[in-house]
Amino acid sequence: MIRKFTFGTPVTTDAVVLSLPAETEPVPFFSVSRSGEQVTLTRKMADEDCLFGLGESVRGINKRGNLYRSWNSDIFNHTESVDSLYASHNFLVFFGPDCLFGIYLDDPGRITWDLGFTRMDTAVITSENGQLDLYLLEESSLTELARAFRRLTGRSYLPPRWAFGYIQSRWGYAGEDEFRAVVEEHRKRGIPLDAVCLDIDYMEDYKNFTWRKDTFPPLDQFTGSMRQEHIRLIPIIDAGILCQEGYPPYDSGKAGNCFCKKEDGSDFTAAVWPGFCVFPDLLREEVRRWFGDLYRPLLEAGVEGFWNDMNEPALFYTPERLEEAFRRAEEIRGSGDYESLWFLKDAFNSLPNNPEDYRSFYQEADGRLMRHDKVHNLYGASMTRAAAEAFRRIVPEKRVLLFSRSSFVGAHRNGGIWTGDNFSWWSHLKLVLQMLPNLNLCGFLFSGCDLGGFGCNTTEDLLARFLQIGVFTPLMRNHSALHTRDQEIFRFSAWEQMKETLRVRYALLPFLYSEFMKAALSDGMYFRPLAFDYPEDRRAVHTEDQLMLGEGCMIAPVLEQNASGRFVYLPEDMLLIRFRSPEDYDLVPLEKGDHYIDLSLREFPLFVKRNHPVLLCPGGEYTEALDDHTFTALYWADRTFSFDLYRDDGQDPDPGLDSHLTRLSLSPDASAGPGSGVAISPLVL
Ligand code: MIG
Fold first, then answer.
1. Would 673 be classed as within a structural domain?
2. How big, in percent rounded to 5, are the helix, strand and coil portions of the chain?
3. What is the CA radius of gyration of the chain?
């Protein structure tokens, strides 16, 4: 059951696809209070209550005990104390012995989620706008709640199948030669690879929709020659458009009156990579159409995937704020006291993403002029929407890969996301593991982090462990920042071990793709907290470092430096598959309970419920080379069971579920001896 309550006159966010009549208060489960423009929802929590949701945010799978803020931010330093990341996913589930419901705040402004921060027993949720649609979802289980949320907000984005291949990326690849060398090195050593990302260095002076001519051939030639190597190019697109007459996107946008305005009616400008930029007012349909059409030449030149960046939108500084900083610096010139120093530092440190700047321009929403901060969290989602709408117009027969940095609920229908600028830190292995199930709950199934870590220098063992998580994340991309240590697999002495990890990904790829597509097409979750499968099992409910994957699997990666294994809690009997390569693995049937699993640096585990299979295909160095007719099924069975494998052409934007399923019937392997039931069965479909 989904109920809606409306406060004030909220703007249309495009997050919700279901139209419901608004009910009148009282709102169940919460006490509601108002102060000024704000609306606050308060609820007492029982000791055992858990909170799931909020998608992209720091800390645990269970969000209880901390304070979070919905305010999309370009945050480079993801420490535990950061309260906002790049996205706002305002869906939260309350789950406990006496409660089971979800709450969605369809509100694109700033929201504070004090989830037991001020008082551990109280959740206090405050909308600053105070103009919102509040949805309350009640179902009989966590799984059904997730499904109901998707019914409310629409089906998850479907990427092309090749996007499940390995992607190599780096900020700093500045020309064709570098890309060729990277691709060649992968191919020469047999390291699987499907795509490379082009970061801002491919552009002419960082200008969107331009192509650097001194170090790159014409785009269509480049895509063509890379396709011969079975490699796709994924260029980055930033949000800001350089203010420069004669630059076509600026001229056409200016002519169409497409840019966000300041109060005096002039275009709002702020510095980002190319210099002073204007920002498309993407809440307007005609502006999305204009902006989306800018992707056309790239699509026509053979580009099949994009990543959208800087779309919080990130602002380095505005001319006004910079002026003010200099004025403040001038004021204290010559004074030697330490307070002046802090004052000076503050004047310059507060230049980027300054809240004042977000209050200084306007966007048009539903025909009304809105101050940007009231609709701030929609900016990234509207950029994703502009691109996706264009793809549907320009290449309706295909799925185009799209992943964005900033997002809002609703964007999950139009694209995937990556989790932004993580670091090469061990703690960030756990961070992504804890984010993924909550992202899935909020509808974002196609996602992944920068494997190896974006900021600072990675290490060989850290990269190896990152890749072992990446084997299971839909988006599997190695990405790193400018000036950090080279992070391609082949740079490391243990590259052959990492190559085997990637080979496992490719052997599993048709199976993982199938699990993903079944989840996406049935409004389910690819990754889930254990609580969703074992709501009665207290240990499982509070497990923070293991995830359910697809119908029958569980992952429990190594998250610590120099660990040679880890403890795993099995909520039921499961088969451990300890992978070293697609050909070299152990199959260990384990009983429900606690186990210590030995996992040397080259080993990683996958757990499977009884009477569920894991399917391995013969593998390949790129997705098109994968054979999805011949499999080895690994399982632990005590009876004959069936399993549905999903296969399609990997391109159809609207594939049905049922017509693509093949039902497999699998039996305990008699040859394995009585009582064992562990099987390695060849399958030809
Ligand atoms: O201000 O394009 O998150 O992935 O490499 C940094 C350069 C801009 C931020 C993205 C990152 C990308 C980088 N970008």
1. yes
2. 30, 30, 45
3. 25
Structural contact between residues 147 and 141, judged by C-beta atoms closer than 8 angstroms:
no
Give all strands (DSSP E) within 45-189, no chain letters: 50-53, 66-70, 87-88, 91-96, 99-106, 111-115, 122-127, 132-137, 166-168
Mutate to test the pocket of ligand 1, among 310, 316, 403 (most ligand atoms within 8 A of CB): 310
Check residue 521 and give its pLDDT. 98
Contact predicate 375/284, CB 8 Å: no
The CA 73 to ligand 1 mean position distance, Å, reads 13
Rounded to 5 degrees, φ, ψ at 537 are: -100, 105
Q: Within a 10 A sphere around the Cβ of 663, how many other Cβ atoms?
A: 8
Short-list 573, 572, 518, CA closest to 549: 518
For residue 550, is it within any domain? Answer: yes
Domain boundary residue, one of 121, 153, 185: 153
Cβ(554)–Cβ(566) below 8 Å = no
Tokens of 119: 């008082």
Specify the pLDDT at position 617: 98
pLDDT at res. 336: 72
CA distance 431 to 127: 26
Query: What is the pLDDT at residue 339?
Result: 82
Share of the chain above pLDDT 90, in %: 95
CB contact at 8 A, 273 and 206: yes
How far is Cα of residue 92 from the mean position of the Cα atoms in its chain? 17
Distance between alpha carbon 211 and the CA centroid of its chain, in Å?
27
Q: Among the three residues 97, 128, 153, which one is the final residue of a domain in this structure? A: 153
Residue 293 DSSP SS3? helix
Give the C-alpha distances (Å, rounded to integers) separating 624 from 120, 197, 307.
52, 19, 22
| b/e burial code for range 425-435 (CB count within 10 A of at least 16 → b) | bbebbbbbbbb
Residue with token string 């569920």: 612
Candidate of 78, 167, 199 to mutate for ligand 1, largest count of ligand atoms within 8 Å of Cβ:
199
Q: What domain range is 523 assigned to?
A: 515-684
This prediction's pTM: 0.97
- Quote the ligand 1 centre to 43 CA distance (angstroms): 39
Can you list the residues of the chain whose pLDDT is less than 50? Answer: none
Is residue 163 one of the residues assigned to a domain? no
Give a yes or no: residue 297 inside a domain: no
The DSSP symbol for 180 reads: H
pLDDT of residue 671: 64
Q: Which two structure tokens, joined as six digits, stand for 659?
A: 């017509």
User: Domain of 88: which CATH number?
Assistant: 2.60.40.1760
Rounded to the nearest whole angstrom, what is the distance from the C-alpha of residue 519 to the centroid of ligand 1? 30
Top mutation candidate among 309, 449, 477 for ligand 1, by most atoms within 8 Å of CB: 309
- Residue 77: closest CA among 426, 455, 598, 338: 455
Domain count, the chain: 3
Pocket of ligand 1, beta carbon within 6 A: 171, 199-200, 236, 309-310, 405, 420-421, 479
CB 400 within 8 Å of CB 305: yes
Cα torsion at 176, 243, 267, 75 (round to 10°)? Answer: 40
- Do the beta carbons of residue 477 and residue 418 sit within 8 Å? yes
